[in-house]
Write a structure and sequence with these properties.
Layout (H helix, E strand, L loop, with lengths): L1 H90 L7
């Protein structure tokens, strides 16, 4: 009878200790998963911020290049008109040459 009580008490202690350990394990896993999710969200936010900054910088570079190209076209047209005017003036038989 005493042997049965000892076995019962041992099983009860093992079950109690194991149950507490299982509860603690689940608590730690839950906290770790929450921390993982927090870090992932933070990293994704940081990545999105960097991506947006890069896209903005690329847009600025593109707009600057586009503006420079337009300015070069305007200069080229002006030089072409100047050259045509100079050629017309120098070869025009009606205009005296100075």
């Amino acid at each position: 009878m005493q042997e049965a009580e000892i076995n019962r008490r041992e099983k009860e202690l093992i079950a109690t200790v194991l149950k507490q350990a299982e509860i603690e394990r689940q608590r730690i896993e839950t906290l770790a998963e929450a921390e993982k999710q927090r870090l992932m969200a933070e990293a994704e936010g940081h990545a999105a911020s960097i991506r947006a900054q890069g896209e903005a910088e690329a847009e600025i570079i593109f707009k600057k290049g586009e503006a420079e190209a337009k300015a070069m076209n305007v200069k080229a047209e002006a030089f072409q008109e100047y050259n045509q005017a100079a050629v017309s003036t120098s070869y025009s038989p009606a205009c005296p040459r100075w």
